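Render this sequence as a predicted structure.
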Amino acid sequence: MRRLFQSKLTLLLIAGLCSLTVAATAFAATWSSSDQYGNWSNGGYIVYNNVWGGVAGSQSIWANSYSNWGVTSNQPNTGGVKSYPNSTRDINTQLGSLHSLSSSFNVSVPTSGSSFVSAYDIWTGNYAHEIMLWMNKYGSVKPIAASWDASGNPVASYTNVNVGGHTWNVYKGNNGSNDVFSFVRTSNTNSGTVDVLAIMNWIKTKGWMSNEIVNRVQFGFEITTSPNASFTTNSYSVSFS
């Protein structure tokens, strides 16, 4: 009887362990990495961990697809961007040849204790021009600008610009390597659709860029400070023709 009881107990323990293994497998991400520049190709996109090193802390990335991914990032409370985990789609099409270029996103982000921006980073002209679309921002983060006021705040080149389906304050500056055009949404949002082509055509009308190649569209989290915080992209896509 005792031996039979022990056998049944053993079978129950094995069954329980199997159930835990199945559950863990079911909730495991398709891909993950803690490498500084870990990356994964999926569905015509590349998901990047993209930690810049130097004073940066640790960061782990996971992904089920280019559209559903996230990071846990532990960055110190010091100045400067530490990482830009993102999902990238290459376009490599001349601006004048594009009939449409749009993107949709939905994210979950921390709302306290962290400084970061959920942002598109769009590159054109063989990476001569960087177009940033700030969809939300938290903490002490500021865009690059041509000038700053007496309080140390960037001065917008244009305010309350309604283009691409959103209203922005627009800043024009240079980071020492390339021109940067930052469109900072006048109110935070964690989801939406953006007409990227309309924004680039608006920039062109200002004479800031020409009919050049649109290299790539990236979307992710530009992280300055994050005390072991989690950032999740619930959905994301880019379409063009």
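Summary. The first strand starts at residue 31 and ends at 33. The radius of gyration is 22 Å.
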